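User: Some background: our group keeps a shared notebook of sequences we're curious about, and every so often someone picks one and asks for a predicted structure to add to the entry. Today it's my turn. The entry only has the sequence so far, pasted here. Could you supply the structure so I can complete it?
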Amino acid sequence: MSLKSSPLRSLQEGHWFKLICGASYQYLPAIEHLTRSYALAGADCIDVAADPGVVAVASQVLRTLSDWSDSLDLPLRRPWLMVSLNDAEDPHFRKAVFDPQACPPDCPRPCVALCPTQAIRFAAPGVESEPSGVQADRCYGCGRCLPVCPLQHIQSQSHLVPAAELLPQLLDRDPEPYGIDALELHTQVGHDAAFAALWQTIRPWLPRLKLIAISCPYAPGVVDYLRWIASIVTPLPCPLLWQTDGRPMSGDIGSGTTHTAIHFAQELLSTDLPGFVQLAGGTNAYTVPKLLSLGLLSSTDPEKEVARKVAGIAYGSYARKLLDEWLDTCPGVQARPDYGVWLKTAVTQAQTVVRLLKNREHRTPRTRHNLASLSL
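Assistant: Of course. Here's the predicted structure to add to the notebook entry:
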């Protein structure tokens, strides 16, 4: 892979695009097709759950990417594969749980209608073979079902990724294109001891990594906390990236969800923290136009230049929702001719958000028209 088309070059030039499959999302068919579609569309990084099965599927997709890039006449750009770890309880590392037998028959079941991945299901009357309740592999922990349950019956179940157990499985492999390329560490203000413990687990594996990302939500004292993190993780043998996690898992809800991540990025860009700054959490089609209007992306109006700029954007729920219709109708990779037609359509759809960042002139008239409504 040439430097010109490398993920590192994208970071340096300010058009890094990351797809977030979900730190708790383990539905393998969707992960396979999301990875392939967005990789062919030009993504620089694919972020998946730190689960050996998930990583195996995503790695296999990236190893065979040239088969499809050749057949679809698309440039081959292998993205980095990233997994997310947490130092303590975090909303990205949870799943909804409830006992479907305790649900009254006359419940309108708003949880089913609201679930973005169809993870909540109820068997048809008399069909005992169909599963009911939360399909755990499809749930990525957005939490939207919790407040709408009329009986407050749904709870969330968090988990801590066992980094010491998983890293040897994910990193102790042959050189690329096997294994993973990057780690993202999810933390929060006040997690000092937990983060320090996680970092000690990760340190021996740093020489094998191409990027370390730190994801943290906004909270009072966050800049001081991130400065403390920088003091213990640097110097690094690879680049460091700060992910400004605005409103987690909300980019498909509405245009305004992007505001918090942009505010957070503005604050970090005004500091002396080393490393790149990347947005996430609530990012959608309105994120790039707003960043451009603020002069926070490269190649914008020189009069709006700032000392530092946003290096990239991560898209999660918004990017996944773009392909919902295609994922539901995917014929399966075994049906190669039909799958090729499906894949070309899915890649074209994925390109609508990738090109918004990478080719700034691809902003749609509708996006430009609505730019004025996105005041911060």
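Suggested note for the entry: The radius of gyration is 20 Å. The mean pLDDT is 87.
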